[in-house]
Design brief:
5 strands, 5-stranded antiparallel β-sheet, mainly beta, 81 residues
Length: 81
């Protein structure tokens, strides 16, 4: 299993991180967004969560089309109506 966090600059109002887990059976990607901090968070959990969404795709063969499934969602996702 390979797991790696990837941080990035998000939209103007948030900071995003991506976490990817890869096994022989599937790939899972989790996207997490937090509001851009104005000051350092004093809480142990680093402050509020804007959104968290996970997707999963099972291993496929070359004759199959991969199917991505949203497995969980919290908060309000950006650019989704």
């Amino acid at each position: 299993m390979l797991t790696t966090p990837l941080a990035s600059q998000g939209l103007a109002d948030d900071v995003r991180a991506r976490f990817v887990r890869v096994t022989l059976a599937d790939l899972t990607a989790e996207f997490v967004g937090i509001p851009r901090p104005v000051e350092r968070a004093s809480a142990a959990d680093s402050g509020p969560l804007a959104y968290r969404v996970s997707h999963r795709v099972r291993l496929w063969t070359k004759s199959e089309t991969p199917t991505v499934v949203r497995t969980s969602q919290e908060g309000v996702l950006p650019l989704v109506s």
